[in-house]
Design goal:
1 helix, alpha+beta
Amino acid sequence: MRKGFTLLECMLAGSLLCLLSVAFLKGIGVTSRVAHENAQVLAADGIVWDAIWKKFNEDYDSLRVKAAADEEELSESAAPELYVEGSPPVLSVRVSAVIGYPDLREISADLEWGPASERKRYSDYQPAFVYRSPLGRASW
């Protein structure tokens, strides 16, 4: 009996190994891109909710209903994960009245980031809003 393997078996095993390594390397690129996009969405989530809670904690009487949202371009230090040179992220915070509830205010925020050709919006992933009423807080 002969021991070992033939040249044909060696070529077949080598081609399968090449195919698997190319597929694996392609997968690394995809997972890296997905991880980067998820990190950007999580960074946007933190910025949006910080803006909402900052507005929520203002005095109720200072919450003025406006037709347009207040927009602010964020610097690189404020949003390092989302900043692109020449196309900074834009945060918009809006206070609006709730129909049917005259004393209730809706505070919502949105963030737009990315290069000019591929802008992303936080509201495309999930809406972010809270309601605020004139009820005072409990004193401790």
